[in-house]
Each structure stands twice: as structure tokens, then as C-alpha cells.
Amino acid sequence: MIIKPKVRGFVCVTAHPEGCAAHVQEWIDYVKSKGPVAGGPKKVLVIGASTGYGLASRITAAFGSGAATMGIFFERPSEEGRPATPGWYNSIAFTRAARAAGLYARNFMGDAFTHDMKSQVVAAIKADLGQVDLVVYSLASPRRTHPSTGVVHKSCLKPVGTSYTNKTVDTDKGIVSEVTIEPANEAEIADTVAVMGGEDWEMWMKALRDGGVLAPGAQSVAYSYIGPEVTWAIYKNGTIGLAKNDLERAAKAIDAQLKPSGGRAFISVNKALVTQASSAIPVVPLYISMLYKIMKAAGTHEGCIEQMHRLFATQMYNGATAKFDAAGRVRVDDWEMRPEVQAEVVKIWPAVTTENLAEFTDIAGYREEFLKLFGFGLKGVNYDAETEPHIPML
Known about the structure:
Largest sheet: 7 strands, parallel
Structural class: alpha/beta
Radius of gyration: 20 Å
Strand content: 15-25%
CATH topology: Rossmann fold
Strand order of the largest sheet: 5-4-3-6-11-12-13
CATH architecture: 3-Layer(aba) Sandwich
CATH superfamily: NAD(P)-binding Rossmann-like Domain
Distance between the termini: 22 Å
Number of helices: 13
Number of domains: 1
């Protein structure tokens, strides 16, 4: 079939297999161009490995450190007349490239929140790798069926306490408008923490520890975002922010458990980027489109792969000593949060309208990055040619 982008709201409902493979190859080429990450991990488990920061972590570990990797993800394969999700195609492309380079790569497709998936992965690590020395926790899911209670928790993106009104942008139509979001109730807050907080990360680390598959000195990292004050009502101080606070609680608990064997766990606070998750958050896409313009002009813009390579090469390995903030977090959002960058955001924000959106923001760059998530707009791909959407997982 011939596959073209079909954008509905904040999601593209199609994905291009060759385009996704080309995108993965771009990331692989970037990591290889930076040279080896000395002292990097050798046996890595990535929980949430098919897109965004999780995929970038897996690529950095494999092609920067020659690591054997296991990836867990929950993606949809192709159906009659409908392509698979981009994460499906990304994972196939990564696996092909890793195995062609002589690297071990094994995939687990299913619900990472279940006890069964944890048991499967522990058994596979024992059989294939013995132990892992890095666990990356990078799950982004809108819902979680609790493995012990069976209760289905659904997350929401809402402010807490009072309603919130601010500018947002329809990135597809280029229309700047005002959005008002009503506050979450207590049940919605609890559900969001249950989905996006730290409980599942703790469960994973307990399963790995009890299974004897964590190497001495093993590290674990999970990802978070803080951002500037203009986004705090919907992010840092909203339901998602409260969930991230719980993730930080979990990081401290896991860190205390790993320290006796020389390991550690921590949160990496990353830069605002176009991802499938961030596209769904009101206000944030407008901020990102401004940020891209400012940081590209300053020569400090990074994407997922640049962020993860910098995390590995300057904070975790390569002889680096990690720099933690007062709360014990690594900050690779440091370039984003530079005072001069944020001062420019504060200056631009009140002035942006539908009419001057292209002048004051990099909305074109936002759209380009958004479509690349789904395999569109990649050089060397013929989007007018027939392609085979039905590709089995490796």
C-alpha cells in the first residue's frame, strides 16, 4: 500500500515502515559518529523501548557501548488496510541493525505492568545474559491495569486545585487559541499517580533483584520533565507533576537498595521535545515550538538521541562524574533552562498569535519533528511508492 500521513488532533494515525527505519538509522548514525562511550553498559534492559527517550537510550547503549539489549514495549502490529504503530516499525529497524552489527537484541511485546511480563523478562535475562548492569525505565502509557488489584487506572493531564487558562496551539492547523482546563478531582490525581508514578518501577526493580539478575554496581534511570513556570500549572504542579514527584520518591527508595552493591538509581530531567506524549499536553506544544526557535538560533537545540547520548557520555559513563541538583536529579534540561533562553520565552509568549506564529516560533520545525515520529519526511524515502506494512516482530 501507499502510506501517507493522516493527522487527527495530536496524533498521526498512520506510520511508514521505511520512514521509521530511516529515522532509527539517523539516530544510530549519530551515536556512531560520536565514538565509543567508554565504560558504558554492556547488558541493558529498557522498559518502554520503542519510541522517544526509551528508544534513544537503547540505541545509545547498543551503538555507543556495544551493549546487549532487551526491550519491552506494547505496540500494535499492522491490520488489514492499516499500518502498525511507529514503535512497532522502530523496534524492528533497531533489531535488524543491532543484529547486523553482531549485537544481541531481544524484544518483549506486551503489557510491562503485569507480573507475568516481569517473570518472563527475569527468566530471559537469566537464560541469555545472566545479569543486567543498566535498567532504563521509560514507560509512557495512558492507562495501567494494576497487576495485584486488577483495577484499571487512567491518567489525565489536568491542573490541581483551580482551573487553568492559557494559550495553546493547534499544531496541525496553526491556530493559537486560549484553552481552559478544569482541575482534577482526588480520584483523577490518584489514578494519574498510579499510572505515571514510581510504583511500577519499584516493582520491576524488586522482580529483577529477587530474581538475582541485577549485576553488582547496576544502575537504573527513569526520565522526567520540569520545564518553565509558564507550563507548571498543567505539568509540574498538575496531575502529571504529582506523578513525577512519586517517581522521584521511588528513585530514592531504589537508590537505597542498589547502593550496598555499588549501584545507584536516579531521575534524569530531560529537555522538552516533540514526542507522542508531549503532543497531547495542552500549552506544551506552543512552548516547544518557541523553544525550538530560540535554541536552534543559539546552536543548543538537541533531540532525543542527542539528549540521551549526552546523558550517557557526560553524566553516567565515559569517566564522567554525574552532576546532581539539590533534589538529587541529573539535569540534561540545563541548556533549555538557561536564563537567557527562558527570558526569551517570557518575552515572546504574550505576543504570539495565529497571525505571527511562523515568525515567533518554529512551528514548521515542530511539525517536521512530529511527522518524523511516524516515519514521514525522511530523506531517501519514496513516499509515493508501494510499501509492505505487514512486518513480523523480530
